[in-house]
Design goal:
The complex is a heterodimer of chains A (172) and B (388). Chain A is mainly beta. Chain A contains two helices and ten strands, in the order ααββββββββββ. In chain A, strand 3 and strand 4 form a beta hairpin. The longest helix of chain A is centred in the first third of the chain and has 11 residues. Chain A starts with 14 loop residues before the first helix and ends with a strand. With 388 residues, chain B is of the alpha/beta class. Chain B has a single domain, classed as Peroxisomal Thiolase, Chain A, domain 1. Chain B is built from 15 helices and eleven strands. In chain B, a hairpin with a 4-residue loop joins strand 10 and strand 11. Classes of the chains: A mainly beta (172), B alpha/beta (388). Chains A and B meet through helix 2, strand 6, strand 7 and strand 8 of A and strand 1, helix 1, helix 6 and strand 5 of B. Strand 6 of chain A pairs antiparallel with strand 5 of chain B.
């Protein structure tokens, strides 16, 4: 604040006063719902998930194999040339351990999350997903090899959650 | 120099930043706007155009938020635009105000930024979950804090940076904020306090994060002719830059914000700056998390990649250091009403360059300052460079 300014507007409210109704307020809960078309590229992706496959798209101009797949290559700004499955294994690029839910409330059993660079896709093509079958999160390492754990085919709905999580794998 | 006209900042104003303020967003915008006009010695009638920066409509639950806030920004019957680029909005608002005047279309522009996050009750975090891709991200339950934790961790891993080194930023900024009369979270804390605070989303802990806040800020911009008539002490907008990267954030190496570098290069080129750490005297760098100050110093080329922690440990970024960063106290200390926080940074640079920052004044008569903000899915950078 400039030293020339002597008074700063704003009247602070106490959270407790708001909760017990001491402050005049109006409440509203929106009742909007959404139904998204998955789109041209992501329809291929989620249909692939139903079959236990992770589908990428390919651009012959830049040579990239892209996950998540897109209908157009944003670098070459041209339609992709096709769709191809990549492996369901990969390498942990970065990871985190969340004790906070979407509404900022706290959770006891932490959610393990990671960006996983997928095998068979171009370098650095990561997918956001969960990690599982890890007893202590301090065992998670950068560069750790992981593999998708799929729901049984009859439980798959065509959703990113058809993969339950990725689990560490030991490779020979 | 790009643009038809040179543009000056001639007045600034802001409200308190607090977790809950009684005033509506419109009322907060009015307070900040009125203060900025008073400081410039102008009336609303003198303003030919208005730019409003404000972040997601979901906070307010009013899905025409720019229009809703227009009266508070003095915009009625005026050319008005609302700009929104996530957390980058506050600094992008001054960039947008600049082109209103630089283009020659207007002699004056009132730039206002407002955020009232408390309206989203009980916590605005849930509104943030709607920023993610609905098909391949949201079903996983992704939250905003996940993605910052993933970025912070990647940055730490790539350069071998320790939590202790990052915590120094939170310690510095919260202490700086003790001298800011509007600050929400000024405090004397220690590195141990940060390291012992609640784990939110490893490696992010409670004291690594800025708060949610209500607040507003405003600036008055004027063309050179008008500014020179009104003040002997204008602060010139000599560089503007902005850049966005792809929303496919899991396809980028998060250790380095290339889009911030791109925005900075645009601004440096315009301002004729060749050696940023030598030529920038004071900077307000976007710090919603402590690691972001370091990450952004590197993106802004104020530090070499991986070297910002060392500058911090050496005291270079303290208010009395050679390159003071966030003398205001930043988002970590003053608070983080998203768009208003970015514009607060521009206000701070204005006051620093005028020598009006009081107890927060950095040493050595600063002549060149930088403010930067960042937002969306870790993909947007906005930069402004000012000179006195």
């Amino acid at each position: 604040m400039s030293e020339k300014i002597k008074r700063f507007p704003g009247e602070e409210l106490k959270g407790a006063d708001i909760r017990v109704g001491k402050v005049p307020t109006i409440r509203f809960r929106p009742r909007v719902r959404y139904l998204w078309s998955a789109g041209v590229a992501m329809s291929r992706f989620i249909e692939g998930l139903k079959e236990g496959k992770i589908v990428a798209s390919t651009c012959e101009k830049c040579g990239r194999i892209m996950v998540p797949p897109r209908a157009f290559c944003e670098e070459c700004f041209k339609p992709v040339d096709g769709y191809t499955p990549v492996k369901d294994t990969g390498t942990i690029n970065t990871w985190s351990v969340s004790y906070v839910a979407g509404d900022a409330s706290r959770i006891k059993e932490p959610i393990l999350v990671a960006v996983i660079d997928m095998d068979g896709a171009s370098t650095g093509m990561g997918l956001l997903h969960l990690l599982g079958e890890i007893d202590d999160w301090k065992q998670i390492k950068f560069g750790m090899r992981v593999k998708a754990v799929w729901k049984p085919p009859e439980e798959r709905t065509g959703n990113i959650t058809d993969i339950r999580y990725f689990k560490p794998v030991k490779e020979v | 120099m790009v643009g038809k006209k040179r543009v000056a900042v001639i007045g600034a104003g802001m409200t308190l930043f607090r977790r809950n303020l009684k005033e509506t967003g419109k009322e907060l915008a009015w307070h900040a706007s009125k203060m900025a006009l008073d400081q410039a010695g102008l009336e609303l009638n003198d303003m030919q155009s208005v730019v409003m920066g404000t972040a997601p409509d979901a906070f307010d639950g009013v899905h025409m938020k720019g229009e809703y806030l227009a009266d508070g920004a003095g915009a009625w019957r005026k050319p008005y635009s609302r700009v929104f680029v996530g957390g980058g909005t506050g600094v992008f608002a001054i960039d947008a105000g600049w082109w209103h005047v630089a283009s020659g279309q207007f002699d004056t522009c009132l730039v206002v930024a407002e955020e009232k996050m408390s309206s989203c009750y009980p916590h605005p975090a849930y509104a943030f979950t709607t920023i993610f891709d609905p098909i391949y991200s949201r079903p996983l339950g992704v939250t905003l804090i996940w993605i910052f934790a993933l970025e912070m961790h990647r940055y730490m891993h790539r350069h071998g940076i320790k939590k202790e080194e990052i915590a120094l930023v939170s310690v510095k900024n919260k202490r700086n904020a003790l001298d800011h009369p509007c600050a929400q979270l000024g405090a004397n804390i220690t590195v141990e306090d940060v390291l012992n605070s609640e784990i939110m989303c490893w490696p992010v802990q409670r004291l690594d994060i800025s708060p949610t806040s209500d607040g507003a800020a405003a600036l008055v911009l004027a063309s050179e002719d008008v500014a020179k008539k009104l003040t002997d002490n204008p602060v010139w907008i000599d560089g503007t830059g902005w850049c966005i990267d792809t929303t496919f954030w899991t396809n980028r190496d998060l250790y380095y914000p290339r889009y911030v570098q791109c925005a900075a290069q645009m601004a440096y080129k315009m301002a004729g700056i060749k050696n940023p750490p030598k030529e920038i005297d004071v900077a307000e760098v976007y710090d919603p998390f402590d690691y972001k100050e370091l990450h952004h110093m590197e993106g802004l080329m104020l530090a070499r990649k991986g070297q910002a922690p060392k500058l911090t440990a050496d005291g270079v970024t303290q208010r009395d250091g050679d390159l003071p960063i966030n003398p205001s106290g930043g988002l970590l200390g003053v608070g983080n009403p998203i768009a208003a926080a970015g514009l607060m940074k521009c206000c701070e640079i204005f006051w620093q360059l005028r020598g009006e920052a009081g107890k927060r004044q950095v040493k050595g008569d600063p002549r060149t300052g930088l403010a930067q903000a960042w937002g969306d899915l870790m993909q947007y950078g906005s930069v402004v460079i000012m000179r006195s």
